[in-house]
Amino acid sequence: MACEGNGISDERIGEALIKEVIEEELKDVPSEDIPPLTPLAVEVRSSQEQKIVTQLGKMIRIIGDRVKEDKEFQDAIDGVGCVEGSKWENFKRVADKVFEQGITWERIAVLFYVAGRLAFKMVEAHLPQSVKEILIWTVDFFRNNLLSWIREHGGWINSFSELATSSMRTVGLNSQLYSLVIIFCGGLAVGSFITWKLTRHS
């Protein structure tokens, strides 16, 4: 049973968690370089929801730190290449690849971590407007593809034990996912750079 009945919303927690993970990845970036994210994801409505978001954020950071040790994965996030197709479609391909073998709490955590790292890389590449796109796309993917599963599996409150276990072991990601992340980063960077150049000249 999901925790919706206790005045706690799995949807609000998920959206706030995505925003929290992205903001955590951007914490060392000067605030003037980051677009405001608040209107793009709903805010939590109670201290209980905030506590859940804070705890989950810590677990995702631990899992993310383990992924950071995976050089091949980090190279994929750092990679920039050229790809055809919409940025949203490229993002969705990466997300679909994360969940190719089914949805788990660990894979949800990895997707949120990837969103945070991509946001950081876009700011680093002087493409801060892409941070909003990444947040919107991740929230949309969460609502359309993950929220029902989360509710069916008892809500975020039931994620703690699996995420705690996940944070104790290395997160394994396959090589096809690496290449998709490279393609997505490349498409996002190229598209955002063109948009940025056009807006500078208008």
From TrEMBL:
Question: In the UniProt record, does the keyword Transmembrane occur?
Answer: yes
| Transmembrane residue ranges | 177-196
Keyword terms of this UniProt record:
Apoptosis, Membrane, Transmembrane, Transmembrane helix
InterPro entries associated with the record: Bcl-2-like_sf (IPR036834), Bcl-2_BH1-3 (IPR046371), Bcl-2_fam (IPR026298), Bcl2-like (IPR002475)
Q: Which GO terms describe its cellular component?
A: mitochondrial outer membrane
GO process annotations (BP): extrinsic apoptotic signaling pathway in absence of ligand; intrinsic apoptotic signaling pathway in response to DNA damage; mitochondrial fusion; regulation of apoptotic process; release of cytochrome c from mitochondria
**Has the keyword Lipid biosynthesis been applied to this entry?**
no
What the entry lists under SMART domains is as follows: BCL (SM00337)
Example of a GO MF term:
channel activity
Q: Which domain of life is it from?
A: Eukaryota
Positions of the Bcl-2 Bcl-2 homology region 1-3 domain: 60-156
Q: Which family does it belong to?
A: Belongs to the Bcl-2 family.
The record, for PANTHER family, names: APOPTOSIS REGULATOR BAX, BCL-2 RELATED
Recorded protein name is Apoptosis regulator BAX-like
| Native organism | Hippocampus comes (Tiger tail seahorse)
